[in-house]
Write a structure and sequence with these properties.
This protein is flat. Helix content is 74%, strand content 2%. Helix 2 crosses helix 8 and helix 7 packs antiparallel against helix 8. The protein contains 8 helices and 2 strands. The chain has 3 domains: 65 residues, Multidrug-efflux Transporter Regulator, Chain: A, Domain 2, CATH 1.10.1660.10; 50 residues, no CATH class; 78 residues. It has a two-stranded antiparallel ribbon. By secondary structure, it is mainly α. The longest helix is centred in the last third of the chain and has 38 residues.
Length: 214
């Protein structure tokens, strides 16, 4: 079946489905005639399982390990329950701090944040987290494109240096050809940077957050 049908059956967007494919959680077959993805009922069932676990806030990496039988469902969910328990403690601490600010009866203009921030630092030393722990997923997702772009750029720069070295050592080498190669590889560097910027913008713009909804 086509991705539009899967989108309707599972109740998640095509963007989410492709995201899970990129993460290696689902691998639909390709139609031999046109090369398009051809989803099966097994793919739909697998996406429903992923959707369930993501709604329980199980990280994608752990879903992958469950799927590959590297960890059991029970062990994963037991750890997840412990995480919820710890997170509930953190939520209780943040609720208490909110109550303290309310009881201080101050406006935003008169709020002295330094004292509360100091309290947060002390609480963080005890293991309480106030930041969004899901940002770790975004950093991991960004790492791949950044590394790939860096390798490509290093290669292009190396090629430019090789061409310049050849020009220096061989006085008969045509200068025009060197200029052409420099322009080509320089354009590739610019194109790589533009593509990287666009990719990071897509990630920051909600691709990961969109997928986390399911």
């Amino acid at each position: 079946m086509k991705i539009n049908q899967v989108e309707e059956l599972v109740g998640i967007t095509k963007k989410n489905i492709r995201f899970y494919e990129d993460q290696g959680l689902i691998s639909p077959k390709r139609n031999s005639d046109n090369g398009y993805r051809d989803y099966s009922l097994q793919d739909v069932e697998l996406l429903n399982k992923i959707k369930l676990l993501r709604r329980l806030d199980v990280p994608i990496e752990e879903i992958r390990k469950i799927e590959n039988e590297e960890i059991s469902m029970q062990n994963c969910l037991d750890r997840h329950i412990s995480h919820f328990t710890h997170r509930q403690h953190e939520i209780d601490v943040m609720k208490e701090m909110c109550h303290q600010i309310i009881e201080a009866n101050v406006s935003f203009k008169d709020l002295h944040a330094d004292a509360y921030l100091d309290d947060m630092k002390n609480l963080e030393k005890g293991g309480v987290r106030f930041m969004d722990v899901n940002k770790t997923d975004i950093k991991k997702t960004k790492r791949g494109p950044i590394i790939a772009a860096a390798v490509s750029i290093v290669f292009f720069i190396a090629m430019i240096l090789v061409m310049c070295w050849a020009e220096i050592t061989d006085q008969e080498a045509p200068v025009g050809l060197l200029v052409i190669f420099i322009v080509i590889f320089g354009s590739m560097i610019v194109g790589t940077l533009i593509a990287l910027k666009q990719r990071l913008k897509e990630i920051d713009g909600g691709e990961i957050n969109e997928a986390r909804k399911y």
